[in-house]
TrEMBL record:
It comes from Zapornia atra. GO terms for cellular component: extracellular region. Coiled coil: none annotated. It comes from the Eukaryota. This is Protease-associated domain-containing protein 1. Plays a role in the modulation of physical activity and adiposity.
Amino acid sequence: CAHPGLRIHEYLYFQVLSPGDIRYIFTATPAKDFGGVFNTRYDQIHLVPADPPEACGELNNGVFIQDQIALVERGGCSFLSKTRIIQEHGGRAVIIADNAYDNDSFYIEMIQDSTRRTADIPALFLLGRDGYMIRRSLEQHGLPWAVISIPVNVTSIPTYEMMQPPWTFW
């Protein structure tokens, strides 16, 4: 199903509920010409970092991605390939973080590859700094996943700017 119009500069927000040290609202951008849209709001769903992080082949923790959302890293294969691998593991959506860990402001437009394949689950792009901070927090706490709410309607949150990560420019 094609989505009418260009979706560039559209943002989608999610909030990390735990671990508490990264309990912020994060900004992501939907893939431009592939993937589904969020028809459901998930109040509490696991954000599971893929192992290996680039998710270009077999996943060691694929069982934990079933019915949850995967956090993967850019690189190694196309955005679409990553999305399809997560979809095949039963993931509800994929969040692809830039592999430039110092990227705190530049959103990349995720477009289809040349294979004419499709993906049905939503695919979102996340800044490298945000992805890195989420993964680092999970490693520090020895946790296999974060708990998030997605999507979050920021217009209903008066203190939205207070809830953004302190390393974000706005």
